Amino acid sequence: xxxxxxxxxxxxxxxxxxxxxxxxxxxxxxxxxxxxxxxxxxxxxxxxxxxxxxxxxxxxxxxxxxxxxxxxxxxxxxxxxxxxxxxxxxxx
Length: 92
Ligand code: HEC
Prior knowledge:
The protein is mainly α. It has helices at residues 2-21, 26-33, 53-67, 73-88.
């Protein structure tokens, strides 16, 4: 019974945090839940290294594949869009 209560509490927490993301860019929530920041601090996203939008999409795809996130292409694009708005500012 105690285990069940814990499991339920965990679910509520998850739902609450997903709810909080609803106000943000959809890519921001994906970026958060895929734990990209465990390797990338804001500094690590460098517009000089990844200097065009298509390259950015490729790198997001590359990391997502590596991590086996199982993300769909549209989710990869949402993350790329979010990172572009936040760090890269490349024309599309
Ligand atoms: C296990 C560590 C790790 C995780 C977790 C990770 N990455 Fe990466 N990422 C790297 C490394 C290493 C590179 C450098 C490789 C390169 O640039 O070719 C990189 C490069 C990138 C770049 C280009 C960086 C630049 O300077 O422009 C982007 C964008 C990126 N990752 C996005 C993501 C996204 C989105 C996620 C989450 C789905 C993610 N990464 C998760 C290790 C990681």
